[in-house]
Amino acid sequence: MLNRQTAEAIQLRLEYNPAPPFNAGSPDTAPAEILALVKERIAPFRQRREEANRRAAARLEHDPESGNRFSLGTNAKRLPGDPAQTKK
Predict the structure, then answer these.
(1) How far, in Å, CA of 83 to CA of 75, rounded?
(2) Count of domains in the chain?
(3) Residue 6: helix, strand or coil by DSSP?
(4) Are the CB atoms for 85 and 73 separated by under 8 Å?
(5) CA–CA dist 64, 24 (Å, integer)
(6) Of 2, 35, 54, 59, which one's alpha carbon is 20 to 30 angstroms from that of 10?
(7) Is residue 1 part of a domain?
């Protein structure tokens, strides 16, 4: 934060007023039917994002011909020389 004046200007620009008319600003406090509605509405976007993530991860997987040596998580195959294989 630069200073209070800047912070207040940003707050005003965003019209951020933390006195919401409903207690639905979090999945923990939103009514179940509202949470279900939001999940239903975002499902197509979430599915597209997950598919894009899978495509990106597939491109990062090890390709012996190109010499790429990426490790993706604990289930990924460890490659020779991978620091995770080095014993301490």
Answers:
(1) 16
(2) 1
(3) helix
(4) no
(5) 50
(6) 35
(7) no
Q: Is the dihedral of CA 56, 60, 61, 65 positive or negative?
A: positive
Residue 45 included in any domain: yes
Q: Is the pLDDT of residue 83 over 70?
A: no
Residues in contact with 38: Cβ distance below 8 Å, sequence separation at least 6, in sequence order: 30
Predicted confidence band of residue 43 (pLDDT cuts 50, 70, 90):
very high
CA distance 56 to 52: 6
pLDDT at 33 over 80: yes
Containing structural domain, residue 53: 23-69
For the chain, give the longest Cα–Cα distance: 59
pLDDT, tens digit, 9 for 90 and up, residues 54-77: 999 888 876 556 566 555 555 555
